[in-house]
Write a structure and sequence with these properties.
The complex is a heterodimer of chains A (277) and B (257). Chain A is 35% helix and 23% strand. By secondary structure, chain A is an alpha/beta fold. In chain A, strand 7, helix 6 (178-195) and strand 8 (198-202) form a beta-alpha-beta unit. Chain B is built from 11 helices and no strands. Classes of the chains: A alpha/beta (277), B mainly alpha (257). Chains A and B meet through helix 2 and helix 3 of A and helix 6, helix 7, helix 9 and helix 10 of B.
């Protein structure tokens, strides 16, 4: 699981970053580094600054102080990176009557040129992305008719329609059913291992974090712990981060629980990536 | 009459296309606000003895950009900022009118417009505006859809959200200024909102939605003018009534389906 760390290059470097939410200090002097081809989870209680932190990395929230280095530039230069970053937001509000089909939404992940020209290739990419998230049948369905979990899978397909270097997910599994959750996690693992995607996610699912992530960042406004799941997700650390005993299970127990979940989903084949990859 | 029909069609197409984005971006009240602010623009043109069309276009563009800037700069909802701007501009416009003793008689023409008085210059302006709007839509349609659906996704993808938003407001404000001359302040929002709202009820996909809204706008322009001529009704209100009945028919049909 950690095989990429020794040879990887930094994709995201955060140095002494502080972020404000109005007058309130949301993130206080945080530093960490994400290496290419790794899967990192940010965990912490509600209001810990997790979403604000990843929005700052994406250039959506301005830093109060400190620096963010993304690839070879800064977060502010994200507009020049365009297709390199995929993002699934925590909330995706829209009106149910918005006239857009699943297929059209996935196609918006392509750039303008890919969108207008080469229709065949565009169609193929969209179909492959939808196949990966098992939503082929819903391709012509209006997005307003989807469930919350289905919508998250469509947004993942939107990210999959072109190769990315960095995939940022803000509680992307919220609303996804147990089977979909395991498929989602396995697909992310495949993107990381086979295609060297760097994945950064905010998650509350410690079982999946312990099973799939290389690095865990425990945040509660300030960075409390960071390291591998085995060293970070201890009851003592979690008690410090959440301020209460949130999980009686040790890392070992979490591993066992994940194994049980995996065994119940063994009939699902590993996800196949589109030819365009 | 031919100029008026052509004007109605062009205004209908423009209103349908821009109105589609307007309602999806929850700015339906924007047309009303900028439309009513035109009263202040007309007062300024009269006070400063400037050409009416040019001043109206310049004023609506400046006012529209100002309103969007305020929406962006404050944490207040867009409806709140739009209501404040609407009240402020009407208050200023009304006070301005009190200083124009000889101009009061023209108030009705600003409120209700006159599509039959549409000039060749107006038609040329409308053609140019439609050409620019279509070119802009064709070049940036996926970006426009994405930023309409979710601003953050658009920003992460590198879409120049601010530029697109402000350019949209410029096009919209010019369209409103030209539509006011044809149908007046009170009915301008109907041209923007009703065809798009009708299309939204029946379309599943985005491009057909845009085309349907433009088509409904154009068709209602022609039908409204025919009805207006046949039974001697005011033309602007006739067009808006055709749009309204079309909307009601589709809404009832969708409810039954």
């Amino acid at each position: 699981m950690h095989q990429n760390l020794s040879v990887s290059q930094p994709i995201v470097t955060v140095r002494n970053l502080s972020l404000m939410r109005g007058e309130y200090l949301a993130v206080d002097n945080v530093s960490f580094e994400l290496l290419s081809g790794t899967h990192t989870a940010i965990i912490g209680p509600n209001g810990a600054g997790k979403s604000t932190l990843i929005k700052s990395i994406l250039g959506l929230v301005e830093a109060h102080s400190g620096k963010i280095r993304l690839f070879d530039g800064t977060g502010k230069q994200l507009t020049g990176l365009k297709q390199e970053v995929g993002y699934i937001p925590q909330k995706f509000p829209f009106e149910r009557t918005f006239p857009l089909t699943v297929s059209e939404l996935v196609g918006l992940g392509l750039n303008n040129k890919q969108w207008w020209y080469d229709r065949k290739r565009k169609r193929k990419r969209i179909d492959q992305a939808l196949e990966q998230v098992h939503l082929t049948k819903q391709a012509q369905q209006k997005i307003g008719t989807l469930s919350g979990g289905e919508l998250k899978r469509v947004l993942l397909a939107y990210c999959l329609v072109v190769p990315r270097r960095l995939l940022v997910l803000d509680e992307a599994l919220a609303g996804v059913d147990a089977t979909g959750e395991m498929e989602f996690a396995a697909l992310l693992n495949n993107l990381k291992q086979e295609h060297n995607w760097t994945i950064l996610e905010v998650s509350h699912d410690l079982d999946l974090v312990s099973k799939y992530c290389d690095l865990v960042i425990c945040l509660n406004r300030r960075l409390m712990y960071q390291g591998s799941p085995s060293t970070t997700l201890t009851p003592e650390n979690l008690l410090q981060v959440y301020g209460a005993l949130v999980s009686p299970r040790t890392y070992q127990a979490a591993e066992e629980a994940s194994a049980v979940l995996s065994s119940t989903c063994h009939h699902h084949e590993p996800s196949r990536l589109p030819e365009s990859f | 009459m031919q100029r008026a029909v052509l004007g109605g069609v062009l205004l209908g197409v423009l209103g349908g296309i821009l109105g589609s984005f307007l309602i999806l971006r929850r700015l339906s009240l924007f047309g009303d606000t900028v439309g009513h602010s035109a009263m202040l623009g007309v007062v300024l043109a009269a006070l400063l003895e400037l050409p009416a069309t040019g001043t109206l276009i310049g004023f609506t563009v400046a006012f529209g950009l100002g309103v969007i800037y305020l929406i962006d700069r404050t944490d207040l909802g867009s409806d709140t900022v739009l209501c404040i701007s609407l009240s402020g501009s009407i208050a200023l416009g009304t006070i301005g009118f009190s200083y124009l003793k000889g101009y009061r008689g023209n108030l009705l023409s600003i409120l209700f417009g006159d599509i039959l008085a549409i000039s060749n210059t107006d038609l040329i302006l409308l053609f140019l505006l439609l050409a620019v709007t279509l070119a802009w839509i064709i070049i940036s349609l996926p970006e426009q859809i994405l930023l309409t659906l979710n601003r953050d996704l658009a920003l992460v993808k590198g879409v120049p959200v601010r530029n697109h938003r402000y350019f949209f407001i410029v096009l919209l404000s010019i369209t409103i200024a030209l539509t006011i001359r044809a149908v007046g302040i009170l009915l301008v929002n109907g041209f923007l909102v009703i065809p798009a709202a009708t299309a939204r009820l029946i379309c599943q996909q985005f491009v057909p939605f845009l085309a349907t809204a433009a088509g409904i706008g154009a068709l209602s322009g022609v039908m409204g003018m025919i009805i207006s001529g046949a039974i001697d009704l005011p033309s602007g209100p006739s067009i808006v009534l055709v749009q309204l009945f079309g909307f009601l028919a589709v809404a009832l049909w969708c409810r039954q389906g």
